[in-house]
Amino acid sequence: MLKQLLLFVFLLQISNAADCPICPRGGIWSEWTSNGVCATTCGACSNLNYTRTCLSDGLKNCPCVGSTTITQPCGTQACNYPRTNGPGAPCCIGTPKIVNNWYHCASTSQTTPTAPCCPTGGVWSDWSSWVQNGNLTEYTRTRNCLSGGFSCACVGESEETKFECPCTPMRTIYAGSTACAHLTSKLIHNVREPYMDKALCRTYYAMEATDFRNDFAFYSAKYNATMSTAAWLDKAGRCTIGNFPGSYTNTNGAYWRLGFKCNTTSGAWYNTWPAYDIDMKEVALFAQLYTPK
Ligand SMILES: *[C@@H]1O[C@H](CO)[C@@H](O)[C@H](O)[C@H]1NC(C)=O
Ligand SMILES: *[C@@H]1O[C@H](CO)[C@@H](O)[C@H](O)[C@H]1NC(C)=O
Ligand SMILES: *[C@@H]1O[C@H](CO)[C@@H](O)[C@H](O)[C@H]1NC(C)=O
Ligand SMILES: *[C@@H]1O[C@H](CO)[C@@H](O)[C@H](O)[C@H]1NC(C)=O
């Protein structure tokens, strides 16, 4: 049993290229491929264009070095007939040479780059968007192993299923955060943490609706509407400020509910008011703003 296990481990090791922890020199390229059909079947008498793509684009700081297209002789097997026995040469380019028990035209061996080593864990494509499974609270996303063609197996699952809303719960920006201080002189109101409806995949904020204690609402002549101001941060911590319709100015201590939908591509939240030129996109953290009285 142990012997079998060891053999298995050994096979696993030789079937993979060596491990490389970070980025191999020159990046990781796919194999050369061509959509074309070679005009001749032997003698390296024709050319084909080949292209390849950079697989390590998906890794941080691992750009590929080299060209993405190449023109190479194709149909490189030496001609047996009529050229070998006839007047023509068996090769248009080079001389016949035995490679892997086959006659090839010597100078035309294909440039077949191989990965010098495998990045740890392989190279995965980005995850697809989450796709909801019918009416169920079940979301699935997939990804592909890009380095698989290089015998660099990927570690991890190629499919992930969640039985709840795939968006990361939104949080509040607390008073004292300086993330938006360069964009506004208004202050952050400590709204309570948002409520997330995991089944319907919505998030709701309780917004202070009145100017009872501080100035939350203001009248916009441009839109002939009572507006509120909000600040929101995306996942990278970038702040955006925007005015949006809603709120009242004369009902003491009233609250109103602001809703967000889940963006299943990015896993963040959004809300839009097309008529008011405001687009809350990629919201990860959120705050209501006010002017102190
Ligand atoms: C092959 O590449 C060359 C140079 O980039 C280009 O001129 C030629 O049109 C290409 N041939 C085909 C069949 O795409
Ligand atoms: C979703 O639920 C509704 C109402 O229960 C039903 O009419 C509809 O066929 C369902 N759709 C799917 C894709 O299951
Ligand atoms: C502004 O809106 C109010 C009510 O919504 C309306 O009665 C009023 O005529 C509007 N004013 C302008 C200038 O459009
Ligand atoms: C959803 O996220 C994707 C990817 O970040 C983005 O391109 C798209 O604009 C977002 N959609 C909405 C409605 O926010």
Question: What attributes does this structure have?
Answer:
binds 2-acetamido-2-deoxy-beta-D-glucopyranose, elongated, mainly beta, five-stranded antiparallel β-sheet, 20 strands
Mind sketching the topology for me?
Elements (H helix, E strand, L loop, with lengths): L1 H13 L4 E2 L25 E6 L17 E6 L21 E4 L2 E4 L12 E2 L11 E2 L6 E4 L16 E4 L8 E2 L14 E3 L5 E3 L4 E7 L8 E4 L4 E9 L5 E7 L9 E8 L6 E5 L4 E6 L1 E6 L3
Bound molecules: 2-acetamido-2-deoxy-beta-D-glucopyranose (NAG) (4 copies).
The site of one 2-acetamido-2-deoxy-beta-D-glucopyranose (NAG) has 3 residues, from loops.
- Our count of helices gives 1
Shape descriptor: elongated
- Write down how many β-strands occur, each being a DSSP E stretch of 2 or more residues: 20
User: What does the main sheet amount to?
Assistant: 6 strands, mixed
Name every ligand kind in the structure. 2-acetamido-2-deoxy-beta-D-glucopyranose
What radius of gyration results from the CA coordinates? 31 Å
Q: What is the helix content?
A: under 10%
Structure classification: mainly beta
| Strand/helix succession | HEEEEEEEEEEEEEEEEEEEE
Structurally, the number of domains stands at 2
Mean pLDDT: 82
Structure characterization notes:
The structure is a single chain. This protein has 293 residues and is mainly β. It has two domains: 1-121, no CATH class; 171-292, no CATH class. It has one helix at residues 2-14; strands at residues 19-20, 46-51, 69-74, 96-99, 102-105, 118-119, 131-132, 139-142, 159-162, 171-172, 187-189, 195-197, 202-208, 217-220, 225-233, 239-245, 255-262, 269-273, 278-283, 285-290. The strands form six sheets. Strands 10, 11, 14, 15, 16 and 20 form a six-stranded mixed sheet that branches. The chain has a five-stranded antiparallel sheet with strand order 12-13-17-18-19, with no helix packed on it. Bound molecules: 2-acetamido-2-deoxy-beta-D-glucopyranose (4 copies). One 2-acetamido-2-deoxy-beta-D-glucopyranose is lined by residues 134-135. InterPro entries: TSP1_rpt. It comes from Caenorhabditis elegans. Residues 1-17 form the signal peptide.
